[in-house]
Every structure is written in structure tokens, then in C-alpha cells.
Design brief:
Blueprint lengths: L2 E7 L5 H9 L6 E8 L3 H13 L4 E6 L4 H10 L5 E4 L5 E2 L3 H11 L5 E9 L19 E2 L2 E2 L9 E4 H4 L16 H10 L5 E11 L11 H19 L3 E3 L8 E3 L10 E6 L4 H7 L7 E4 L8 H8 L4 E5 L3 E2 L3 H13 L4 E4 L5 E5 H7 L12 H11 L4 E3 L6 E2 L9 H10 L4 H6 L5
Parallel strand pairs: 1-2, 1-4, 2-3, 6-10, 13-14, 13-15, 17-19
Antiparallel strand pairs: 4-9, 5-10, 6-9, 7-8, 11-12, 15-18, 16-20, 17-18
């Protein structure tokens, strides 16, 4: 595994120190990419001299000024290392930053982003006696949406495969491309949860010409409002922002009572559940039959990608509904609990959910979770984002095989390892060690 350290360059005053902090890394598993984005003359000269040195792990580019978001996207689009580590031209990496981040990446391969602590330093690099501006800790949610969108800051490591599933770095043109960092956090968090490294790996320099110094609090609040509203729309959450400053409060728009016409059923092509559903009056158009050729790890997400209705029900092969009333009871349980996800029986051979749950969490994890535990993993993801999750019996339904978890100890250990930094969630799901 290697890290792409990416630096948009605008000013040359502290650039050499920034570059030297990369060269001083205890690990050599990095490449350094820098783009001169129409910056000052000193930064151009420094980069030209660096380019002439032809360091095997350093790449230098020159472009016209298009703003910070475009500069970051330019660099990320031209690198292919497994992880991306953004760095600003006036800041410093701690000597063990790459080494420690890669250690965390091996420990948390599912994380879309890994964040560590930073310290504030003065112009001369000495520690500044000032409280951090932004918190360091888990983010907070309300029914699927982040409330504390300001809870982000460098340093952070982005998994390349997760970044490839986003729209990339984006900012606001009327704020010189700024807002790209908060936005990428929101996008990545919709794919997989974050992990934290409680160690200072970055030194953020305070000086009068830093880019963030020109961004006023009203401008920051406006960007956060826009980003929150965009994320709500992107995920299709039935929420409306009800406050002007973060941490935001959201008002839930109550959905209409669900009917069977709102549900699509995802099941394997050879499942006995299909015939039982049709006997209950479920139309063929509501059955999403996943071919047997699709692996056991991938079939649920394959089916979901074809779904278009507001509710999706995932059925294991051996669940049968004897009559329509059993299906209607399932929908009533969802509506009466004002739930976003219903598992029946716990932890679930039948999973009924609102489609925005998957839009906000990334859905079933086929890479790090065994098929027998994917429902349980999605439950944990949904609970983490404050979706309302409930358990209910399958009234009148039957299962010809096992009840409960059919997972090996090794598979359970794998799931617990993924969620070990969230012990309260594991305990609430009955999966604590």
C-alpha cells in the first residue's frame, strides 16, 4: 500500500518546509504530487527547482489558477496510489504520519476515511497556545444526516476505492472553490464509516496570509448550510434543515403510510419465496430476482441497484409468507414504529427498509462482512447514522431452515473487529463479545 500526498500550491513562503516534512517521513511508501495553481512567483521557482531534481517519488505540475477544489481534483485524478493524503502548502506532516496512517489503513480496511489529530503552530513552527477550532471525535447524526458538518479537519487519509465512488473534490465558485473538504467528508461518509487515530500527525500553521483566514464566519455558515441541504437531497432523506447554524437540527417530513405497491422484493432467482409472494398477490414487477451467477456476497446490492420504489425488502431463500396479511403486518410494524429499517426476526432473514438507508450508509458490505452477517452489519450502519431500526416477528411467516445467525465464530469475530470502536452499537445489536 502506498499513499499519494497531494499539495495544491499557491504561496511559496512556507512551501520548502512543507516539502521537507514529506521527505522526512519514516516510511517511504509515498508519492508527492504538487500542482502550481497560478500561485506566487516564489512558489513557482521552488517547484521548478524541485522538478529539476527529478526525485523518483515527486511529481510537479503547473496550471492556471482555478481554485482549491479544482487543484485537489487535478492531483487526485492523476494519482493511483491506494490512499490519498491531502496536505496544504503552508502546513507540515509529522514524521510518522505516513507510517501511522498506513498502519491504521491495514487495521481499518473498511474505512472510507481515517482522520487523526492536528496541532496549531505559529509562523516559526512552534506550538501555538490556542484551542483547536474544530472538534476531534465521532460525528453526530439525526435520522441519517450529519448534524456537526464542521467536525472535520486535516489530517485525513482517503481510501482510493471509496474516492472513486464519489463525485470527487468539489467546491463553491463564489468562495474560490472552498468547501471541498467538508463536501468530500459528506460524500465519503455515505459509503462507509470513518475511523479515528488519536495521535497528532499534522501541524497546521497560523499566519496572516493563510487561505482560511480570508473566509469569514458568515461565509463558512453559508457553505455548511448549502452542503447539508445538498446531502439531504442526494440521499433522498425526508428531512428539512430547521436551523441556520451547525450543529444543525432537521425536521422530519413524515412519509405516507406504506402499501405493498411501495415495496420491491429482492431475492435469489431460485428462491421459494417468489412463489409464496405471488400467491399473496405481489405482482411480478415487484420481484427483483437476482441471478444465481451473482455471488452470495453481492446479490443484495445487485438487487438494490435495480430497485426504484421507496421501500425494499430483502428475503433470504427459505422465508415463506402464507398469506397477504403477513406482508401487511410487516408494513404496519414499520409505519407504527416510524421506522427506517425493520428486521424480522432479529437479526434478520427478512429486512425491510426505506431506500435512503442504503443511500446514506453504502449498503451491504460485500468486502469485509460474511453473507450471513450482512444484515446485521447494515443494521449497525443504520443505527450509527441514527436511523430508527426496529425488530418485529414475521407474523404467520415460516422459515424452513435456521433461525437467527448462521455465522461461524470467525465470521462473528470479523464483524466485531469492524465495529470494535463502536461497542455500544455491538451491544445494542446483541453482538458484543
Amino acid at each position: 500500500m502506498r499513499v499519494s500526498i497531494e499539495v495544491p500550491v499557491f504561496k511559496g513562503r512556507f512551501l520548502q518546509e512543507c516539502i521537507d516534512s514529506v521527505l522526512a517521513q519514516t516510511s517511504e511508501a509515498w508519492t508527492l504530487s504538487l500542482v502550481w495553481d497560478g500561485g506566487d512567483e516564489l512558489s513557482r521557482r521552488l517547484l521548478q527547482a524541485l522538478e529539476q531534481r527529478r526525485h523518483p517519488r515527486i511529481r510537479v505540475y503547473f496550471t492556471e489558477n482555478r481554485g482549491i477544489a479544482c487543484a485537489r481534483k487535478f492531483l487526485s485524478d492523476r494519482s493511483d496510489e491506494a490512499y490519498i493524503l491531502p496536505l496544504d502548502d503552508d502546513d507540515l506532516l509529522a514524521p510518522r504520519a505516513v507510517e501511522r496512517f498506513l498502519q491504521a489503513a491495514r487495521e481499518y480496511p473498511w474505512a472510507s476515511l481515517i482522520r487523526a489529530r492536528r496541532e496549531l503552530v505559529q509562523q516559526d513552527g512552534q506550538g501555538a497556545q490556542q484551542d483547536p477550532w474544530f472538534p476531534f471525535g465521532p460525528r453526530h447524526y439525526q435520522r441519517g444526516m450529519v448534524t456537526d458538518v464542521f467536525n472535520q479537519a486535516q489530517p485525513y487519509l482517503i481510501r482510493r476505492s471509496a474516492y472513486a465512488s464519489t463525485c470527487g473534490w468539489r467546491g463553491f465558485a463564489d468562495f474560490l472553490g472552498a468547501g471541498e473538504d467538508c463536501d468530500i467528508f459528506l460524500q465519503l461518509e455515505e459509503l462507509a464509516h470513518f475511523e479515528l487515530v488519536d495521535e497528532v500527525l499534522y501541524r497546521y500553521r497560523l499566519h496572516e496570509t493563510r487561505a482560511s483566514h480570508s473566509l469569514t464566519p458568515p461565509a463558512a455558515f453559508e457553505m455548511w448550510r448549502r452542503l447539508a441541504d445538498q446531502a439531504i437531497a442526494r440521499m433522498g432523506l425526508p428531512l428539512a434543515r430547521a436551523s441556520e447554524r451547525p450543529p444543525f437540527v432537521y425536521r422530519r417530513v413524515a412519509p405516507a403510510a406504506a402499501t405493498l405497491d411501495d415495496v420491491e422484493f429482492v431475492l435469489r432467482a431460485d428462491s421459494c419465496a417468489a412463489a409464496a409472494l405471488q400467491r399473496c398477490g405481489v405482482a411480478e414487477s415487484a420481484l427483483l430476482r437476482v441471478p444465481a451467477s451473482v455471488s452470495g456476497r453481492d446479490w443484495k446490492m445487485t438487487g438494490f441497484r435495480a430497485a426504484r420504489r421507496p421501500l425494499v425488502c430483502f428475503l433470504e431463500d427459505d422465508v415463506c409468507f402464507p398469506e397477504r396479511s403477513a406482508l401487511e403486518a410487516l408494513l404496519r410494524a414499520l409505519s407504527e414504529a416510524d421506522a427506517d429499517l425493520l428486521s424480522a426476526p432479529a437479526p434478520g432473514e427478512c429486512l425491510l427498509l426505506r431506500r435512503e438507508v442504503i443511500a446514506a450508509t453504502g449498503g451491504f458490505d460485500a468486502s469485509h462482512v460474511a453473507p450471513s452477517l450482512q444484515n446485521a452489519d447494515l443494521w449497525l450502519q443504520a443505527c450509527r447514522r441514527d436511523f430508527r431500526c426496529v425488530r418485529a416477528p414475521l407474523a404467520g411467516a415460516s422459515s424452513s431452515a435456521r433461525q437467527g445467525l448462521a455465522a461461524t465464530l470467525a465470521e462473528l469475530s470479523q464483524l466485531r473487529a469492524k465495529w470494535r470502536t463502536h461497542p455500544a452499537l455491538l451491544d445494542s445489536a446483541g453482538l458484543g463479545s
